[in-house]
Amino acid sequence: IACVLSGLPESIIAAACARSGQRVLHVDSRNYYGGNWASFSFSGLLSWIKENQQKTDVSDECEDWRKLILENEEVIFLSKKDKTIQHVEDFCFGNQDSAEDIEEAGALPKLPVFGASGAEGVAQELEKGCPPVESALPEAGSREPEKPTGTEPASAVEGSDKEVTSENGSSHSTALGESTLEFGKTEAAPPEISAQEPKKITYSQIVREGRRFNIDLVSKLLYSRGLLIDLLIKSNVSRYAEFKNTTRILAFREGQVEQVPCSRADVFNSRQLTMVEKRMLMKFLTFCLDYEQHPDEYQDYENSTFAQFLSTRKLTPSLQHFILHSIAMVSETDCSTLEGLQATRKFLQCLGRYGNTPFLFPLYGQGEIPQCFCRLCAVFGGIYCLRHSVECLVVDKESGRCKAVVDHFGQRISANYFIVEDSYLPESICTNVCYRQISRAVLITDQSVLNTDSEQQVSILTVPPMGLGKPAVCVIELCSSTMTCMKDTYLVHLTCPSTKTAREDLEPVVLKLFNLNTEKETENEELEKPRVLWAVYFNMRDSSGIDKNSYDGLPSNVYVCSGPDSALGNDCAVKQAETIFQEMFPTEEFCPPPPNPEDIIYDEDEIAPEDSGFSNSPETKLESSSEESSSRDSTAVKKEDNEE
């Protein structure tokens, strides 16, 4: 198997193929894992912005490889210019005068800047002066937290078991190395700094603390009962990552941000709803859980929108708004009744598995997830080459199948199957393909959109369309305990399907929620809003949902993976990966669980006989419930996962 680019679908396929005993070569022309699924430090993101603002064509320096093409073969040249990112605009709203010549803390001279989050682990180890952990492979999905600056010894945050964190508790977990709130208990705050006022953060501080940022190119959350969580548990890849609960579901209504009660306890403890509204809401949500058992209540509205269906129920306007935009999270104009009921049921079924909300967020960013699957692939013999571009596909004229690829060194590499990300395909193959676009914005702010007693909140907010033909905007706000931003700042992601450029689509929402003024404000309304310290807007191609037959002249053994889609979850990527794997190997199991290390049989020359398999139930940090757990058979393998 030859995989080109290391996005999430490609990484899942590579892991599944390696786990089933296939030989896998995974190459990427970039110097980081993840492609458009990657996470960057602040300096890495600045480098990425510069690269996409100053795109240049890469010249073909090596012509010798053409001698490797036989008479009965033809080539399909792969694109060297990334056209998936457009309209990149970045802005600094803080004082930049003192930011000149400021470097990130612990920055190493004369080393390449690794933007992806997995490469930051090495730099963080060097920054702390700690010796690297000896292992056969670098641990892609789990990194050592940065050493706290308080008086606690380092051992206070070392050696703890990894776990899914919840929103209760003063600090989010010792396993996550986040103990700043615990320091606040024992160490009094300086008297001159008010607990109510946000600390003044300068641009130079952001640059200096840039390694504390892990900024995702694509903003997503993991449904607690979604396909990706199920796959992480089944394959035991979850042990390579840590997760944090999304603690709040927010709504934007009548110009105000409000918290939405979604669990039964939240509904009955809510002060926003009257007793009548609480009964209305609980009755409707109970109906949504088993709506298929009551077709007479919705079948007359199957051709109507979900918003029209809600208006026929005994629900107040505020409840209709909460259900439509914060629970179902669907379009007011385009979503049918059945689609809305399905989305509402999915939300409700995910409640309570790992917390009071349906969502999890991976620590250090979404870019950790592709790296986790890359690590599983490497453990089972997969070979990885970054900064390694592919010039072309070599196709046999008679059979129409791809026989090999030729890399930028002029090497011909043969394989039976080829996985290519859509952005690598030339325009000649994509003439009949119609792409959508995603509008993205990333903000660094000084306070939360809804301040509460706890600063460590992970929130999701859906802002309704702000005009006719405008899309709803999904806003995800991350705190410092997610290991994606520095202390006293928040990282805010905005996402919507594109209608214009990202700035034109998203700036009206930014102006509604945040303060962009750099001068000292006089209006109370502006003072209450969080201040934006830095922002970037860009458009990203959405190539999901494209049928393989839409690509002209594509060989039958070349499979195309799409980039990120605009949906909140990751179901599209997992479905695509499983579909491609089953087309290649219909008799193989998709991502079976690996054996526990203590069950591995070692032999210097060969793998143990097939009749010496073992049955085991691997433990994961994302543990399935007792009724979901089952004993899984696994075969003995030669490789050892040194983490265990």
TrEMBL record:
RAE1/2 domain mapped to chain residues: 438-566
GO biological process terms on file: intracellular protein transport; small GTPase-mediated signal transduction; vesicle-mediated transport
Polar residues composition-biased segments: 166-177
Keywords: Cytoplasm, GTPase activation, Transferase
Compartments (UniProt record): Cytoplasm, Cytosol
Extent of Acidic residues compositional bias: 600-609
GO molecular function: GDP-dissociation inhibitor activity; GTPase activator activity; transferase activity
UniProt-listed InterPro entries: FAD/NAD-bd_sf, GDP_dissociation_inhibitor, Rab_escort, RAE1_2_domI_C
One cellular-component annotation, GO: Rab-protein geranylgeranyltransferase complex
Disordered as annotated region, ranges: 132-195, 588-644
UniProt-listed Gene3D superfamilies: FAD/NAD(P)-binding domain, Guanine Nucleotide Dissociation Inhibitor, domain 1, Guanine Nucleotide Dissociation Inhibitor, domain 2
Amino acid composition bias (Basic and acidic residues), ranges on this chain: 620-644
Protein family membership: Belongs to the Rab GDI family.
Protein name per the record: RAE2 geranylgeranyltransferase
Species assigned in the record: Burhinus bistriatus
Encoding gene, per UniProt annotation: Chml
